[in-house]
Write a structure and sequence with these properties.
Length: 226
Amino acid sequence: MSTQDGHVNEGAPLVPENSHPSPSKYLIIAVILAIITGIEVALFYIEAVAPVLVPVLLILSATKFAMVAMFYMHLKFDEKLFSWFFVGGLVLASFVMVTLLALFGPLSDAVQRDAVVGLKTISSDSGTATIPLSGDQLFAAKGCGGCHSIDGVPGAVGTLGPDMNGIGARAETRVSTLSASEYIQQSIRAPSVFVVEGFDPIMPNLASSISQPEFDTLVSYLLSLE
């Protein structure tokens, strides 16, 4: 502190130019941030806010970000130039995000209409009865032909597993306690239980990737290969 004679009074206390927030103020800011976050979550469940949900969330997010930067990162107490850089970058980023959303995202009515049409198409398609595949078609569709061969089935030329020609007759003699149908079903459900001599136990558990009707169709088809 200067005196009239130009000397500095070293004993005088120095007054800081900027005082940082107290712990209680930091706690208040944390509570405000939590409240804003709760509002953001609640807005998702309010149908009336749906038309303006995105811009409202952007504003709330920008507010939280600004509060964190201003207080917890001490931007409020630094040079004003840094604040201008922060605010300018935040405004520019928000403008770009809103523009992109307006062109390609939820703010675009055209995009929303296309999305609704697409969902309706998917819904109608899923409600349409599909034509079930035949046994040989299932055999090819599930990739069985990559390891097994069957005459007349396109792509069924594999050699890593047993030849399926005549499996309906051979299955009857494989295990004395099992019928042909039971043996084939067991071989599909648990392929490692019955491994034909000369082949490795590499067959995957096919039963877990097909429906029960498909499973029954495939078993019936293999039984017919006599």
